[in-house]
# Entry
Amino acid sequence: MPVQKRSAERFERLLDACAELLDEVGYAGLTTKEVARRAEVPIGTLYQFFSDREGLIGALAARNLESFLGRVADRLEREEPEGISGIVDVTVDEFVTMRRTIAGFGVVDFGAAGQDHILEPTLDNNTAVAGRLRSLTASLTGTQDNAEFEVAVRVALECADSVLKLAFRIDPQGDAQLIAECKRVLNSYLNDRRR
Amino acid sequence: MPVQKRSAERFERLLDACAELLDEVGYAGLTTKEVARRAEVPIGTLYQFFSDREGLIGALAARNLESFLGRVADRLEREEPEGISGIVDVTVDEFVTMRRTIAGFGVVDFGAAGQDHILEPTLDNNTAVAGRLRSLTASLTGTQDNAEFEVAVRVALECADSVLKLAFRIDPQGDAQLIAECKRVLNSYLNDRRR
DNA sequence: GGCTAACGTGAGCCCTGCTCATGTTTCAGG
DNA sequence: CCTGAAACATGAGCAGGGCTCACGTTAGCC
# Structure
């Protein structure tokens, strides 16, 4: 991570260029040379900030995650939704909104497929996300924040991620029916689990 | 697709080598040069059978799909399981078995992530799989094979795929608790849906 | 045997990820 | 203001990957 001011700007520019390019050419088509060219940063500088191509994409994923958690935390605090389905609504809707508005979010969200352990070196990505989400929601639901609950959140997160990916594969704006189905899956599962 | 005998053998050897290598070096680390070397086939010949690297992996995914559908169809016919949860059991268990025994299955199953439309050019992979699974199960359940049901199968498939991927990320033999959770998700969702 | 189409081959082209030797800038402590 | 060291900047070039293509070999029909 850079500490000086110009470096920090370049760092952000590189992430922005990376996100844009992911939307244009996809994960496999992304080249570090083109990212550097877009950001108007020499290739050597890119490699001063990021260990390698995966590190670059991982940093983008981390930025996405922080942004997502911030937005969800804000809305949960403000709206204090009721019960599981309220939290599911907020979380899914916020994910959908980001998917529609944040460049590259559809390709890497919190970590590109196949490529893991980029957010926390010892955890796989969605586990890291689940951990953060769990501490966010446990207080709201009053649910015991135990091992059972942890598993439930992890499973729910995997399902949500995959069904929403499907929703956006069908329709670039996100197929409404499938977004509704996503919530249905989560509600059915999480409600059944509480017995 | 090759037609002569020696070619057909080489074709299979290439897929086998590809599957092995995927387990060893992962999706990103797979090189066509190494696949060809392993299969003792010149690199030019590989490109006579497969349009490119993705075509090679796509062919492996197609072979996996046929194998999976064959196994599931066999077991469903033989055991005639009761209700939704019976079918879920058989299907998930068969997937888990293949995941444990078929080389490369954990990496590509029916199509590597991010990379789509390799089984059917117009459909995304899991939609193609869902279509095949649907015609397999519709007769058994007596369920109307309608649009509603199609959506349900697609959603269920995405969830199953992602939760099982998680189960095998946690434990190379497949975490038993998460495999159970996978069935739970599917049962909760599919039962709730029938109302 | 002759002929054509299918199959077989691997040196090498082009492009990519990444490095590294060499400079330049920043800034704390004097 | 000076000075030194640490942080930052740079881009030619290397290693290695995907894929091609011009040229050889075989299969199988007449």
